[in-house]
Design goal:
By secondary structure, the chain is α/β, with parallel strands linked by helices. The protein folds into two domains: 166 residues, 3-Layer(aba) Sandwich (Rossmann fold); 169 residues, no CATH class. 27% of the residues lie in helices and 27% in strands. It is built from eleven helices and 15 strands.
């Protein structure tokens, strides 16, 4: 069994606890929390499992890492604390751990040598013989291997278009929704998510990775942005009032340009009210979020995935990819890995195996 730590207990971390517990070749050894008030709680409680796991959470990073975990699922957010995230991950790498995470956006495509932090990570790997796999950035599991798998079904690929369409009105994440994405804020407020070059920092690696897999050379990466105001004030159950005139919807694209045309596109369409920007793409009726992948070529192939819950569905899919990679990485040499390096593999389900025996 591979001794595994889950670091962080937000939406992603809760899903990670459940995934590690369910994996037949992993053993949950510890859960690290930032808030001392969460220290000492059973992991089953933190993960929403409805049963005790006998593993208590801790806020003592040094003590937990000193136990020498074989793997770490780093689930803490990197949205506004990138330096701290890199320091945390380097500490885990220096004790020889395999680290899987969505939290270092620039390393989605680690072969891009424009990011200085890559050398800091490489130094930590050299010191401790750990490994790092970064993927499913921002829970975008459909931007990872899904477009390439769909593209493999056709005779040729002319264009790949990935969309995430989200209605934030049922979320309970006011800091991310109001201040990171700018929902409800005046249109002259420049939210971090949409600041110039920030979309490329977050999603550009996914565009470059798809281009590399397809064997095409990018001319450049472009960004486009549209915003719409709320026409009337709205009240949400979880986050309170959003005033008329504030940002009600945003639509951004990160475009990989090939031959002067946008051939690889990652698009986000986000709203705080489902009636805002009705001419833009929307989730299917009754749903709060959807992921759509369209591959155009000699044949057109489309896939849509729906998250039934306001938050957490996409995290569970992304966590599955990361946690499912740990036992494969345990058999590989130390180093940096990306989504093209790590194969898609079923983790197995012991209860199904028992039933078929």
């Amino acid at each position: 069994m591979i001794s595994t730590i889950v670091w962080g207990t937000g939406n992603f971390g809760r899903a990670a606890i459940r995934a590690v517990d369910a994996h037949p070749r992993l053993e949950l050894a510890a859960v690290l929390v930032h808030d001392p008030g969460r220290s000492g709680r059973d992991a089953g409680d933190l993960g929403g499992l409805g049963r005790a796991l006998g593993v208590r959470s801790s806020d003592d990073v040094a003590a937990v890492l000193a136990t020498g975990p074989r793997a770490v699922v780093y689930a803490a957010s990197g949205d506004i604390r990138s330096a701290e995230v890199v320091a945390d991950i380097c500490a885990a790498l220096r004790v020889g751990a395999i680290v899987v995470t969505p939290s270092i956006y620039p390393l989605y495509d680690h072969r891009d040598d424009r990011h200085e932090l890559r050398e800091e990570i490489r130094a930590a790997i050299a010191d401790g013989a750990g490994s790092l796999f970064v993927t499913c950035v921002d829970a975008d599991w459909t931007n990872e291997m899904v477009p390439l798998l769909l593209g493999g079904l056709g005779a040729g690929v002319d264009r790949i278009h990935c969309q995430e369409i989200v209605d934030y009105s049922g979320f309970d994440q006011p800091d991310s929704v109001r201040y990171l994405a700018g929902m409800g804020e005046p249109l002259d407020y420049l939210a971090p998510m949409i600041a110039p070059r920030m979309p490329t920092t977050v999603w550009g690696g996914q565009v470059r990775l798809m281009a590399r897999a397809l064997g095409v050379e990018l001319d450049e990466i472009r960004e486009t942005l549209e915003r719409r105001p709320l026409e009337a004030s709205i009240e949400t159950d979880a986050m309170g009032k959003f005033d008329a005139g504030g940002q009600g919807a945003l639509r951004l694209q990160v475009q990989g340009i090939v031959g002067g045309e946008p051939r690889i596109v990652i698009e986000h369409v986000n709203r705080i009210d489902p009636t805002c920007a009705p001419d833009w793409p929307s989730p299917p009726d009754g749903q709060s979020a959807a992921q759509r992948v369209i591959v155009e070529g000699e044949a057109q192939i489309a896939m849509i995935a729906v998250s039934a819950a306001p938050a957490g569905g996409d995290e569970a899919m992304s966590v599955g990819r990361l946690v499912g990679a740990i036992d494969w990485l345990a058999g590989q040499a130390p180093g940096l890995y990306d989504a093209l390096d790590v194969p898609l593999r079923p983790t197995g389900a012991p209860e199904l195996a028992d039933a078929s025996a």
